[in-house]
Amino acid sequence: MNNNFFKILSFALFFMVVSCDKNQVFDEYKEFDGTWKKNKKATFTFEQKDTTGVYNLFLNVRNNNEYPYNNLFLIVSLNQPDGKVLVDTLEYQMAYPDGTLMGTGFSDIKESKLWYKENFSFEKAGKYTVDVEHAVRQTGKVQGVQDLIGITDLGLRIEKRK
Predict the structure, then answer these.
(1) pTM for the full predicted model
(2) How far apart are CA 44 and CA 129, in angstroms?
(3) What is the bridge-based pairing of β-strands 35-37 and 71-79?
(4) Assigned CATH topology for domain 25-160
């Protein structure tokens, strides 16, 4: 009886984990090995057929304790099938005032799910490409940081709104 209980409980937990993510349309990560080079864009390509649905787009950042800044600046380009390009410069808070990193995770790796576009509709069906580059600068310096340490992965996630 105990064995059957654990089998049922395991199946129920697995079903809940899988079913909780049914709104996910796209989820992909690019790895940076702890350093994101200024000239290295993270590029995500996906096929979009639905032009009537509404979506939320997120950037998922994984960073470790070596990340030295309180914020993160990103330049994100959404390249549409018709050649139109939407460019956004985004700023995200990455640490609390005491320097403790924000995000979830039990180890020194923290993951932050950051809003990119909310209630977004894709105008055209076809292939989309999202390019992301960092634009972090040290206070008082004009030239951007060339080697952004502490970033381990960057992901793009698209979820269909309910």
Answers:
(1) 0.82
(2) 6
(3) unpaired
(4) Jelly Rolls (2.60.120)
